[in-house]
Amino acid sequence: MADAKTAKAAKKPGFFKELLTFLLVIAIILGIASGAIFYLSGKNLDDLLGSRPVAKKETNQPALVNPVSTGQEAGANQQLNAVPVSSEGNGAADVAMPAAYPVDTPGQHSNAGAALPTQKGALKGTITWQYNDFVGTKPDVNARIYLIRTDFDKNTITDEEEVVFAAGLAPKNSGLYVVKANGYGNYEIGNLPVGEYHILVASAKTNRNTDLPVDGYPITKLKPYIRMWDEFILMSLMTNKYEVATITIEENQTLDFSHDFGNTYI
Hints:
By secondary structure, this protein is α+β, with helices and mostly antiparallel strands. The chain contains six helices and nine strands; from the N terminus they run αααβββαβββααβββ. The protein has helices at 2-10, 15-50, 67-70, 159-166, 216-222, 229-236, and strands spanning 120-130, 137-139, 144-149, 176-180, 186-193, 195-207, 240-249, 254-256, 259-260.
């Protein structure tokens, strides 16, 4: 019964006309909306792209000088402001240089910031040992050479610095010096203030008889300058051969102190 009524209504002459009118109105509305959206999006795109300034490549170079107006070639004056000109008018650049420049040499403590003594000398030498009867002399590579001034005050450094010194490093600004022999057994310490020093050379290639105590000579010479004496002996004198002496560094002279440790104990 209901299907019959629907079919009858569909046969009314105005039904299709109303349907077409409705669809046409919907199409017009969609067209207008699409056009508006396209227009607005295009306008915004123009605003974004058209109004943005073009980036220019920045350079740090100054403007070139017109050679006609100055008599100079273009670009010739680009770096003139970076070079100080002598006040005497001779065209030479005045470069500020320090009157004295402290230099740290291998094994020497840093004396930066302190006034350098005028009297200086140097120390060098070669440390060797005997490999065997067939090979003979070999360089004692990494043998350690310690220097202690005879006027050194052991209370001017800390216990930690004493341990560092015993291990083969000179604490900065301590007045102590340590250097190691190179691959040829050679060593050198320059820029040494003149005066008297105790020198200790500890071999890196030869062993001593550890059943024997450290003899009295290094104890007499070195112990007054070392508070942690037992630690110092353990790290520098206990297992390896050593040589102790007193030397004098003279002005403008290079003292040669070399030593051969002979054969190792074991």
